[in-house]
Design a protein that fits this description.
Blueprint lengths: L1 H26 L21 H7 L1 H20 L4 H22 L5 H23 L3
Helix pairs in contact: 3-4, 3-5, 4-5
């Protein structure tokens, strides 16, 4: 009886420690690219070659920062829930269009269009934030 209880406690402790050890490894952001040609030549696919060479990286970072600002301002009560929802919808439209453009690589015109869309969302956020105070 005592041995069975010790065995159960030992097994549950072992399982819990295995989960604690594996959790940080699972939380790591893992990315990879598909290489084409020789080992020295690697081209990443998925968003088109021009997107990965710098055209779209700053757009994605701007959109992430903007989304965080919307969330923070809504949480603090600086903008209403409806205003936050409208801005979130606009950001979702931006992401959808960004994905569509980036499938075959962003041209300069597409990059400019996406950048102007983010500018409009930022202006709308500034306007919404000011009308509450």
């Amino acid at each position: 009886m005592k041995t069975a209880m010790i065995r159960k406690a030992l097994l549950s402790t072992l399982a819990a420690s295995a989960v604690m050890v594996a959790t940080p490894a699972l939380a790591q952001n893992v990315s990879f690219s598909i290489g084409v040609g020789s080992p020295g030549y690697s081209q990443s696919y998925g968003y088109g070659h021009r997107y990965n060479r710098g055209y779209g990286h700053d757009l994605r970072a701007r959109a992430e920062r903007l989304e965080q600002r919307v969330d923070r301002l809504a949480w603090n009560g600086r903008i209403s829930r409806r205003e936050a929802q409208t801005l979130s919808w606009r950001l979702q439209e931006f992401r959808s269009l960004e994905w569509r453009y980036a499938r075959d690589g962003l041209s300069r015109r597409e990059y400019a269009d996406l950048s102007h869309r983010l500018d409009r969302i930022e202006r709308q956020l500034r306007h919404e934030r000011r009308d509450r105070w």
